[in-house]
Amino acid sequence: MLLKTYTPVTLENFGGLPEENSRYKDSRAVIFPIPLERTTTYEHGTRNGPGAIIAASRNMETWDEELNVETFAKIGIATLPPIDTAEGTLEKVLAEMHTTELALLSDGKFPVALGGEHSITPPLVSAAAKKFPDLSVLQIDAHADLREAYQGNPASHASAMRRVVEMCPAVQVAIRSLSIEESDALPGLRTKIYWARDIARAPLEKWIPRVVADLSQHVYLTVDLDGFDPAYMPATGTPEPGGLDWYQVTTLIREVAKARKIVAADVVELLPQHGDHASDFLAAKLVYKILGYVFCMS
After folding, report:
1. Fold topology of 21-295
2. CB 3.0-4.6 Å disulfide test: which of 52, 215, 271, 277 passes with 45?
3. pLDDT in tens, 88-129
């Protein structure tokens, strides 16, 4: 047996977790990094989001004071290597995401994909919908993402939720930016929007139960970090004023997890900024909170 003669560095997985709490076969949750950046149109750098989230998570306290549990010790959290999103066509990369997500779900895992741009969501939802035919999607986002195509590309980040509602119904929360095309199409789409202007200053009990009631039993959760007000989350490619705060978002996710079964999730559109560690940390903490709500509430 090798003597312990030195202190090893923190492991480069989500949370810096020891092997016994991060082995794939023993973990109920799996972090799936997808550093995709193919269709961004304003600020660039979302390809660095997954790495920044994982790096921040290694400096995060793992005791959840709200749930009174050390989430990772109860469930195990494995971290996959990042998928190669730089080589091959976008269609090939999206197909690989779909196949991997389907395999994770078939193995009984709870996948949390880390983006990258929001165009990762449709292939992941497609995989979840195959396993859960009654699936609905809860989106927290500043943007509706309901364009039929953007700059000629139907797989654009600006079309992510249009592709989603072709597969299953959605509930979109904190929306405050859309095009006239999207506004005109809304009545014919399988979605319900909770506008940021209506909920940002409203009591939680006035709107969160309505969101929960609009969701089916099985829910896919997608969080575009610009759903937060940029005062809390400035590190996004297209920030929009007027979003939600930490407790509004986490309370919503907690209440959905209580009443419905969240089966998979993604957290997307972090664009790391030099010197802004708070945004990276918020994203990492949000991932950990999601896992706590899904697995550790009595």
Report:
1. Arginase; Chain A (3.40.800)
2. 271
3. 898 999 999 999 999 999 999 999 999 988 999 999 999 999
